[in-house]
Amino acid sequence: MSQGNTGNRSARPQAWAKNVMSVGGTYHYDTLSRADDAWNGGASIGPAADGRIKPDLSNYYDAVHTTASGGDASYTGTFSGTSASAPITCGYAGLIFQMWADGVFDGGPGLDRDVFASRPHAATAKALLINSADQYAFTGTSHDLARMKQGWGTAGVGNLYRRHRTTAGGCRSWSTRRTYSRGGQSATYTLTTDGSQPLKATMVYTDPMGSPSAAQARVNDLTLKLTAPDGTVYWGNNGLAADVWSAPGGSANTIDTVENVFVQTPAAGTWTIEVIASQVSADGHVETPATDADFALVATGKVTG
Questions:
Q1: What confidence tens digit (pLDDT) does each residue in 133-178 have?
Q2: Measured between alpha carbons, how far is 113 from 290 in angstroms, rounded to an integer?
Q3: Is the Cα torsion angle 118, 236, 174, 155 positive or negative in sign?
Q4: Is pTM beyond 0.90 here?
């Protein structure tokens, strides 16, 4: 869903929905370099009314070369707005669905499975897009490319492909879905890294419909927590509103249905990744008779073992 083109928080109403992929925009000035990219007061921005980070991602806002409405051969190099950045991002999502069906995430490609019969869940696709995105460097909430303007960055499916296809570099990523039947449960995973590349973990869950009059959009509350080999704790989204990289410490996030931990120079050794069901109030996993919730988790880094 395109975020809108107001240059402020008066975004398109549908873009605030917690389970959609909301897409903002950045001017790229028709150059190949990302160094001159800027928000520059164009696309609508976040946060949502309850503080959730929006947009989720962003892409080119100006000088998009595409077909035009003047005729069968009509073409333009000046299409613009989040009506451009959103379909570009949708195209990247389509590539993820193709990669999934063809077996890239299973050690392929080459499986040639049907894309409708073999596809990721919505939360998994969203987590894959966010975890592999290219972030713009920024510091502080007022920066021109701050978090509430660029979201989690620009979709970088090439990053995702290389991380799964390059075995010699030891760079690997994985995704999973786990179901909770009640609050207080947790799922624990470990990842051992040599510390030479950033460690990135992304947790996304599809949340049940809430009340339009509620002050907070989310219904269930799942929380991401990483613990370093020395015991240092990183809570999901802590510090990421004002910086590209996570800050240690903090507390559990109780607002967002997308949580990230991005550690630029992780300590070498075994990291513990937990997804905690802080609250399960409504059925988020209707495939089963229980009142439960599930999530998608993607983690990347230069891992060993």
A1: 999 999 999 999 999 999 999 999 998 888 876 555 556 666 666 6
A2: 31
A3: positive
A4: yes
DSSP states of 171-202: EEEEEEEEEESSTT-EEEEEEEE-SSS-EEEE
CA distance 11 to 5: 7
Amino acid at 186: S
| The two structure tokens encoding residue 74 | 């009509």
The domain locations on the chain are 1-165, 169-302
CA distance 156 to 273: 24
CA distances from 237 to 30, 50, 290 (A): 32, 15, 29
Tokens describing residue 141: 């909430």
Q: Would you tell me which CATH number, out of the four given (1.10.10.10, 3.60.130.10, 3.40.50.200, 3.40.50.1860), belongs to the domain 1-165?
A: 3.40.50.200
**Cα–Cα distance, 172 to 169 (Å, whole number):** 9
Helices (H) and strands (E) in the chain, counts: 4, 12
Q: Of 128, 121, 127, 4, give the one whose Cα is nearest residue 58.
A: 4
Walk across the sheet containing 269-279 and list its strands: 186-193, 269-279, 221-227, 233-235
Write down the residue that tokens 């207080």 correspond to.
Answer: 184
225: DSSP letter:
E
Q: Do the beta carbons of residue 10 and residue 44 sit within 8 Å?
A: yes
Angle CA 304–107–121, to nearest 5: 100
Which class is domain 169-302?
mainly beta
Residue numbers of the chain with a pLDDT score lower than 70: 165-179, 181, 305
